[in-house]
Write a structure and sequence with these properties.
The structure is a homodimer. Chain A contains 11 helices and 14 strands. Chain A folds into 2 domains: about 200 residues, NAD(P)-binding Rossmann-like Domain (Rossmann fold), CATH 3.40.50; about 100 residues, UDP-galactose 4-epimerase, domain 1 (Alpha-Beta Complex). The longest helix of chain A has 25 residues. The N and C termini of chain A lie far apart (about 40 Å). The interface between A and B is medium-sized, with 25 and 24 residues. Chains A, B: Pfam families: Epimerase (PF01370).
């Protein structure tokens, strides 16, 4: 089976590629060729597998067609301009997140006009498709009323994915990822950055700022769980989806206070002492509009598995990023 | 105020134009100029008002810019390829219903870059944005999972309208119209045609075929109510909408049996005798997947008014289409 990963150089993309190379197969079907695409040519993984690394901008006409040259039976589409950038740059967000995805879907449709072709397409959507009104726990049949251009673009791509799948043009699964924590790497300016920062920095002996109250509740999955979602979506029986091709992934609802309690259990009081309360009204205001928890019953029934405690999320970070060591 | 009506030659478009010409104002603001656009140049209404009639295909680049030349403060966008055609012709449906609408929205955005411009945009969406799973009564926060390409295109345009409005690029209101009954004119091949046919034909002394069971329940508004929704959306205080710019219009839930009982009350047993039961499994199957009833509480609270009985819908047809006479 040929596999194509678009957005392979991102944080989740790199972890997905590592899992594909490690397993050598998806759902028991061996991978014969792997194409990794991103705006910048991704680094090739160390493997005996046939790997092609390409720089590609999906929003450029013809780009998707090139990526489909080997008729990949499985396509992961993770590429996106992130929320803050899509909000700051209207045209870029719509061009990459909407037009790029649509050009990919259209290239698949046109490839299927020449010869039989109906690949599995796994698309990463986001809980940003949800907005006002926000119940405390969002059900699986709740409306999509995004409050950002990013969320709008993801919601539109979900609708396209469902329609193309209904028509048999490809076999799509859209997965709405929770906020990923603990994100590895340096602190960033994203409004959600502190959710990872208050765990990651203290574990490495660094101080971290907490801009919101401990009562703030949000929806999390580890990077490892995210890769698990992608692999499950790639191999699942999509007949079980019917025409509802987009699924809210099972996350873990936790308050900041629960995050901190988990950190104390895992790493002790010294680690927790490195969290500095620096209240920030702007961040608090942004985060107040975010979803707090989801039912995600449908995805759980279909075999998607998230974490059950924030302790687990912290331990995964220590295992996967810190080599099992706390600094 | 300059007013632009796109899709002015359609059934609802013509009735809207008649109401605009009759009133000479919208929400108390006098209409100074009226531009009527459709694929074919619309017939000019009889009026002293300044009216421009233009043939325009929104999906052709530059077409929307031409329509905005007079900077209309109020834009009604009703133009669409209907459901059956959008399903039969994938590319045409997406080109007209999605790309055409997006080009209009983009033209408004670009006009606002040159000088201050933020028109009210009233967009007709449809209950076709709803699909599986379908509760007996669909709430105002129910997800959009359309089962047709037409419904998909309408749902995407709703998302765009909300995002452009949130960003202050225009002041949009999307209204999800119920199935319009009684549609005037000849019987057509639409799967929903019989809902109007079993009333319209008997009232004119003609026979009509009923392909489904009397227990089938659906969601209706008269053409007059549809025009009322459009005019209310044009004049309402959109600050009350917040970021939720799309509204399910209040319709009337009625079974086919209730339609027939209403016909008997209004026009007698002879009229009802003209309905011939001709069960058709294909039509019954299509209709089985359609919404039956909605809460529509939000729209009602915001002042949108539909009918309260099917008798009323029949009487409106007799008044508006038959000059008050039953054949």
């Amino acid at each position: 089976m040929n596999v194509l990963v678009i957005g392979a150089a991102g944080m989740v993309g790199r972890k997905l590629v590592a899992a594909l190379v490690r397993d050598g197969a998806v759902g028991g079907v061996p991978i014969s060729g792997l194409t990794l695409a991103d705006l910048q040519e991704p680094d090739p993984p160390v493997t005996g597998m046939a790997v092609k690394c390409v720089a590609a901008d999906l929003s450029r006409p013809g780009s998707a067609e090139t990526l489909l040259a080997d008729q990949p039976e499985l396509i992961f589409h993770l590429a996106a301009v992130v929320s803050a950038e899509a909000e700051a740059n209207f045209e870029k967000g719509y061009r990459i997140n909407l037009d790029g995805t649509r050009l990919l879907f259209e290239a698949i449709r046109h490839a299927g006009e020449v010869q039989s072709y109906c690949p599995r397409v796994v698309f990463t959507s986001s809980i940003a498709v949800f907005g006002e009104p926000l119940p405390a726990v969002i059900g699986d049949s709740h409306e999509q009323t995004p409050l950002t251009s990013y969320g709008t673009q993801k919601a539109i791509c979900e609708l396209l994915l469902a329609d193309y799948s209904r028509r048999g043009l490809f076999d799509g699964v859209g997965i709405r990822l929770p906020t990923i924590a603990v994100r590895p790497g340096k602190p960033n300016k994203a409004a959600s950055g502190f959710f990872s920062g208050i765990i990651r920095e203290p574990l490495s002996g660094q101080e971290a700022e907490l801009p919101v109250a401990e009562s703030v509740r949000h929806w999390f999955a580890s990077p490892r769980a995210a890769v698990g979602f992608l692999l499950h979506a790639a191999a699942m029986d999509t007949a079980l989806l019917g025409n509802q091709r987009n699924l809210t992934m099972p996350g873990l609802a936790a308050t900041v206070g629960e995050q901190i309690a988990a950190l104390e259990r895992v790493a002790g009081r010294d680690a927790v002492a490195r969290i500095k309360r620096v209240p920030d009204a702007t961040t608090a205001g942004i985060v107040a509009g975010w979803p707090q928890a989801f039912e995600a019953e449908r995805a759980r029934r279909l075999g998607f598995v998230g974490e059950t405690s924030f302790d687990e999320i912290i331990l995964i970070h220590i295992e996967d990023e810190l080599g099992g060591w706390i600094g």
